[in-house]
């Protein structure tokens, strides 16, 4: 019998952003695989529990997967560190699926935001299925990403007529805005790259804790507001102990 793995996008933080398709998929699960990251936060665990409880009438068996350490934060060889981490994840998840997902059963992962955008779950699950000795099909249920949540919160279109939008890791912004590109969404900016590039002619639309009760939004001329963003960001991270943020840089 064919088993199934559902990758369920649950949105960027608001439990009400779970789609009808995602809710239905949660109700069909026999087992939920939960990735517990380093220093996993009670808030994230509680949101998962809330989402599951709201969309199921029966208890759901869960299997915890404790994420391998992420050494690339300090390693000089970033690509090699990522490859090692993904290989460790692949082995751990393969073992868990082999032992915990029965023939004909449906397993699932709840994925923050969308499984297709800056999220490694889909790539690793596809590798897992490719090397698995039995038949497993994959279903991907999209979710509301932080990128779309950011645009909606600021009430702006993500793209402008006739112009492209680039979504990239913030480290690629270190030299400045890409040539020929007017709109860039920066992801994974642990070093506040926006504060170190030439701000001439740029606006920023910044958001943290998007979709939650703690949501913070700041926008305006980059040169005028970047110090405010740095201050607010540091205060929020200190207060909560963590921060998820992203932003759009836009040429005027």
From TrEMBL:
Every Tetrapyrrole methylase domain range: 6-223
Pathway given in the UniProt record: Cofactor biosynthesis; adenosylcobalamin biosynthesis
GO annotation, biological process: cobalamin biosynthetic process; methylation
EC numbers, comma separated: 2.1.1.152
Pfam families: TP_methylase
Molecular function as annotated in GO: precorrin-6A synthase (deacetylating) activity
Lineage: superkingdom: Bacteria
Primary enzyme class: transferase
InterPro entries tied to this protein: 4pyrrol_Mease (IPR000878), 4pyrrol_Methylase_sf (IPR035996), 4pyrrole_Mease_sub1 (IPR014777), 4pyrrole_Mease_sub2 (IPR014776), CobF (IPR012797)
Keywords attached to this entry: Cobalamin biosynthesis, Methyltransferase, S-adenosyl-L-methionine, Transferase
Protein name: Precorrin-6A synthase (Deacetylating)
Native species: Acidipropionibacterium acidipropionici (strain ATCC 4875 / DSM 20272 / JCM 6432 / NBRC 12425 / NCIMB 8070 / 4)
């Amino acid at each position: 019998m064919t088993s199934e793995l559902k990758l369920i996008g649950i949105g960027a933080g608001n439990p009400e952003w779970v789609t009808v398709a995602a809710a239905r998929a949660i109700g069909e699960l026999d087992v939920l695989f939960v990735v517990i990251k380093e220093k996993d936060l009670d808030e994230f665990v509680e949101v998962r529990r809330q989402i599951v409880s709201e969309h199921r009438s029966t208890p759901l068996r869960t299997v915890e997967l404790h994420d391998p350490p992420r050494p690339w934060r300090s390693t000089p060889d970033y690509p090699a560190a990522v490859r090692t981490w993904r290989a460790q994840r692949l082995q751990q998840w393969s073992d868990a699926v082999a032992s915990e997902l029965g023939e004909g059963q449906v397993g699932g992962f709840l994925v923050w935001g969308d499984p297709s955008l800056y999220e490694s779950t889909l790539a690793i699950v596809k590798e897992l299925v490719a090397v698995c000795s039995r038949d497993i099909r994959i279903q991907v249920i999209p979710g509301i990403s932080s990128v779309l949540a950011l645009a909606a919160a600021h009430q702006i279109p993500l793209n402008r007529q006739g112009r492209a939008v680039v979504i990239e890791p913030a480290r690629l912004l270190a030299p400045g805005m890409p040539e020929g590109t007017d709109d860039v969404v920066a992801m994974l900016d642990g070093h506040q790259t926006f504060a170190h590039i030439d701000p001439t002619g740029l606006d920023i639309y910044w958001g943290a804790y998007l979709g939650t009760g703690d949501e913070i939004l700041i926008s305006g001329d980059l040169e005028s507001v970047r110090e405010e963003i740095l201050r607010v960001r540091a205060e929020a991270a200190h207060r909560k102990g963590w921060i998820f943020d992203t932003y759009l840089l836009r040429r005027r």
